[in-house]
Write a structure and sequence with these properties.
This protein is of the alpha/beta class. It has two domains: 7-187 and 357-405, Rossmann fold (3-Layer(aba) Sandwich), CATH 3.40.50; 194-349, Rossmann fold, CATH 3.40.50. It has 17 helices and 15 strands. The chain has helices spanning 14-30, 33-45, 61-72, 89-96, 111-122, 135-143, 159-170, 185-208, 224-235, 247-255, 263-266, 285-288, 309-315, 346-349, 358-378, 391-405, 414-421; strands spanning 52-56, 76-80, 101-103, 128-131, 153-156, 177-180, 216-220, 239-243, 259-260, 272-275, 296-299, 318-323, 326-330, 336-340, 385-387. An eight-stranded mixed beta sheet has the order 9-8-7-10-11-14-13-12, with helices on both faces. The protein has a seven-stranded parallel beta sheet with strand order 3-2-1-4-5-6-15, sandwiched between helices. Helix 4 links the parallel strand 2 (76-80) and strand 3. Helix 2 runs parallel beside helix 3, helix 3 (61-72) runs parallel beside helix 15 and helix 8 packs antiparallel against helix 15 (358-378). The N and C termini lie far apart (68 Å). Bound molecules: 1,4-dihydronicotinamide adenine dinucleotide.
């Protein structure tokens, strides 16, 4: 099939790595009631029998519980990372032990190995793809179009992946159906908002050992992620400044009480800069030139293009590793600007990163598992293109979670349901 080595062929002490990986997965699973419920259902009913699932995701403990859930549902799963720095090798090795799972994900690989592992996943000839950032969909369409006919569909985890897929769809180039898992309420209102907010701030604090209190924190982008980051930074007594390009989002941030201004003005004020835009060149040379000595620069967007590190390197007269995960760039005038996690998404790629809290990933991955089941059961009903996950599936995931939390809520009476659906009722 492929001679690309699995993680088990690459780690030094496989037995120890697997033990540690399983320990991390056990902890995650204990706090993932949605996936636990779906895993039991999948194991009993084998809805994914005969499917081959190719995945490119952040390979750490929570993702591993999703991967096991799919494999226990009868699928053969091949997985690799979606970022060279976010893989936990021990978890990858533990996954690779499962009879239905092959893992190629390895931490710290170069570009050649990163794309080699994606090709290795594709060599399993997936019938379903699960992406975080659209790498598999792109590689299949560009290099292996002959596989498309046998692909039932795909599921995409993140905003940037969904943007890329929609662009591809608009150009008429997307040749199989893909669910925009990111866009479901159960995913983006929790994962992007609370997950990115909490885990980005936690990782920056742990990587630097510095406090948020009293800091001027510049948040670039006031979408779901930016909203969460701004709220949580403000909750930790930071002064938040927001930069935006979309007038309604800028107004929303203003009405929320944050200072809103262009990046080039914020550059003079900020102690910490965190980009959450999914766009490129959000912080550039003109901004670096105005920043104070000692500022922190971090990114939570999907790709490492938000802080222009090429321009920063050109300006720098010297560079050094100030701490693990913190690269200091010294300017000609002596100012030092510190970049965290190489400008890659800080909550997943910094040396101690654990990604989002377990609870929110349980929701996101619950939607992923339900979307994959839907593709197997009803895939033929979906044309090529980007599709919303059916609302009923999203509700199902919310209901499992509320049940697990012991939270009860009201139901519409038949009269209320009829009233809500009727246009004849007025004052
Ligand atoms: P979104 O589309 O809701 O928000 C992005 C915001 O950035 C928009 O309001 C847009 O107007 C603004 N923006 C675009 N260019 C800008 C610029 N040059 N300056 C200032 N603002 C600009 O997207 P969402 O869901 O907040 O995701 C943002 C990024 O974070 C994406 O790349 C997504 O894939 C990624 N993401 C990362 C996660 C993580 O774990 N770190 C989790 C979820 C998403």
């Amino acid at each position: 099939m492929t001679d690309y080595p699995t993680i088990s062929e690459r780690v030094d002490d496989l037995a120890t790595a697997r033990t540690e990986g399983h320990r991390k997965m056990d902890w995650a699973r204990e706090h993932m009631p949605i996936l636990t419920a779906l895993q039991a259902e999948f194991e009993a009913e084998q809805p994914l029998a005969d499917q081959r699932i190719g995945m490119a995701m952040h390979v750490e403990a929570k993702t591993a519980v999703l991967v096991e859930t799919l494999a226990d549902g009868g699928a053969e799963v091949a997985i690799t990372g979606c970022n060279p720095l976010s893989t936990h090798d021990d978890v990858s090795a533990a996954l690779d032990e499962h009879p239905n799972i092959t893992s190629y994900a390895e931490h710290g690989v170069d570009d050649e190995a990163y794309y080699g592992a994606i090709e290795a996943v594709i060599a399993h000839e997936p019938t379903i793809t699960v992406d975080d950032g659209m790498d598999l969909v792109a590689a299949i369409h560009e290099d292996y179009p002959e596989l498309i006919d046998s692909i039932v569909g795909g599921a995409e985890e993140t905003t940037t992946g969904v943007h890329r897929l929609r662009a591809m769809d608009e150009d008429g180039e997307l040749k199989y159906p893909v669910f925009a898992v990111n866009d479901t309420p159960m995913k983006r209102l929790f994962d992007n908002v609370h997950g990115t907010g909490e885990s980005s701030l936690a990782n920056i604090a742990m990587t630097t050992n510095l406090s948020w209190a009293g800091k001027d924190v510049v948040v670039a982008g006031y979408g779901d992620c930016g909203r969460g980051v701004a709220k949580k930074a403000s909750g930790q007594n930071a002064n938040v400044v927001v930069t935006e390009v979309e007038p309604r989002r800028a107004l929303e941030a203003h009405m929320e009480g944050y200072d809103v201004m262009p990046m080039n003005e914020a550059a003079e004020i900020g102690d910490v800069f965190l980009t959450t835009t999914g766009n490129r060149d959000v912080i550039t040379r003109e901004d670096f030139e105005k920043m104070d000595d000692g500022v922190l620069l971090a990114n939570a967007g999907h790709f490492d293009v938000e802080v222009n590190l090429d321009q920063l390197s050109e300006l720098a007269v010297d560079q050094r590793e100030a701490r693990d995960g913190v690269r200091e760039y010294e300017m000609a005038d002596g100012r030092r600007l510190n970049v965290l996690a190489e400008g890659r998404l800080v909550n997943l790629a910094s040396p101690i990163a654990l990604g989002h809290p377990v609870e929110v990933m349980d929701q996101s991955f619950g939607v992923q598992a339900a979307a994959v089941r839907e593709l197997v059961e009803n895939g033929k009903a979906y044309d090529a293109g980007v599709h919303d996950v059916p609302d009923g599936l999203d509700r199902e995931i919310a209901e499992i979670k509320l049940d697990a939390e012991g939270v009860e809520y009201d139901e519409l009476t038949p009269e209320q349901a009829e009233y809500m659906d009727s246009w004849q009722h007025g004052t």
